[in-house]
Amino acid sequence: MTNQMKPTIYQLKSVATGTVFEDTGWVLDAPGESTPGLIRAIYSDRQLQLNDDSFGLYKFASWLPVNRMLDGSSSPVTYKSIALANYLGLRNLYITFNGYWPEKGASMSTCSFKETEAYSVCGRLQPDQEKVLVVASAGNTARAFAKVCSENNIPLLLCVPYDNVDALWFDKPLNPCVKLLCCESGSDYFDAINLSNMVCKIDGFIAEGGAKNVARRDGMATTMLSATTFIGQIPEYYFQAVGSGTGAIAAWEANLRLLDDGRFGSKKTKLMVSQNLPFVPMYHAWNAGSRQLLAYDDDVARHDVEEIYAKVLSNRKPPYPITGGLFDALKDSDGDILIASNEDGLAAGQLFEALEGIDIHPAAEIATASLIQAISNPLFDKEAVIMLNITGGGEARFKKDHEVVYMEPDFIFPNTISQEALAASLKKLRF
Question: Scanning 25, 144, 173, 410, which has its CA 20 to 30 A from the CA of 42?
Fold first, then answer.
């Protein structure tokens, strides 16, 4: 490793009760609390201490709950838009780009901001961790964790819907410490989560934790840190497409820390998050004023997931209602949930590439489409400082510049597999 660091000093806090406690290891929940709620990292550095760019993602290490730095990380890159901003009539549009764009200094080889969470989560792991990390994903998260764990020799088991395996491409073959389980064709991300939960009941495996893992959220929070430190102030609006909403929760939490920092203004960013029609469960709940997600038939939900082209936006059980989750983030930030169709997204993506000069992922296209729709409101302030979080991009450029290989599943399981049959199969894996 080029750079060395001491473990970041922090404590954990229950969002529900305010109780502060120590991180005794892989803590995902506040001890002794029965009401579902997120925990949050409280850093000893009240003000953000920036390392130089050679640290990659770990330039933000003072606000990451990590014990070590891993090889190969990259940081989000923020720049002020000219072409797209002029086209939309915006004076202060800032784009935070996560992906591969050498001319901008963006070098995430998985082309997704999921790298930010993977380097943070795996940096939180103790080096002597003996259990296999288990990650459920609709695609991009799996690709990011596979890269990080492969390059740093961390045992990993991925659970991904079979129909999404084309998202598991890499610029070189993976270390055999990374294995892949798929749930049958026709399954979705929720089925992959169920499979991962079954795996974690077996000795020797440990759940990554999703939104409950403070390292995942604070890794993704680096997008807000990148934008704010580049702009010199907290943005007034934050646009991002969401599947689970974890990235938006992370941006909100970063916003709260930046307010406490005191150097970047006193505004709360309005979270403007978007979903891809017709799969919009959080949109329906939000517009009904409901903390709880509304009833959604499983078969209808799976059908709607098949219809959307931004497949990563397909979480049927997102951390929306949980204390400290997306509902609370939207309420506190005076935010909103927007929607965009496949056609809206495709058009926005073509516009972005034509004007800014790089391809972007479907989820980022949905976010861009929602920005375009939002500013069409005559009451929208065109002078506002806006952050557009491009959560993935440059994949076409990366594949043009590199040969890629695809990961093959070690096992494909039906959704009806028993716990016993699963355990028997996993005994055959060697990490």
Answer: 144
- Region at 167 (left for phi over 0; alpha for psi -120 to 50; beta for the rest): alpha
* CA dist., res. 392 & res. 244, Å (int): 16
d(CA 213, CA 219): 10
The position carrying tokens 């953000």 is: 48
User: For residues 110 and 96, what is the distance between their CA atoms, to the nearest angstrom?
Assistant: 16
Q: C-alpha dihedral over 351, 354, 359, 360, to 10 degrees?
A: -20
Say which amino acid occupies 421.
A
DSSP single-letter state for residue 33: -
Report strand pairing: 39-43 vs 10-14. antiparallel
Q: Which residues pair with 161 in a beta bridge?
A: 183
Q: Is pLDDT at 346 greater than 80 in this prediction?
A: yes
Domain ranges of the chain: 77-109+216-399
Q: Rounded mean pLDDT of 354-371?
A: 98
Note the pLDDT tens digit of each residue in 132-188: 999 999 889 999 999 999 999 999 999 999 999 999 999 999 999 999 999 999 999
**104, two tokens:** 């901008």
Q: What would the CATH number be for the domain defined by 77-109+216-399?
A: 3.40.50.1100
**DSSP per residue over 226-284, as a string?**
HHHHHHSS--SEEEEE-SS-HHHHHHHHHHHHHHHH-SS-SPPPEEEEEEETT--HHHH
> Residue 353 is encoded by which pair of tokens?
């590439």
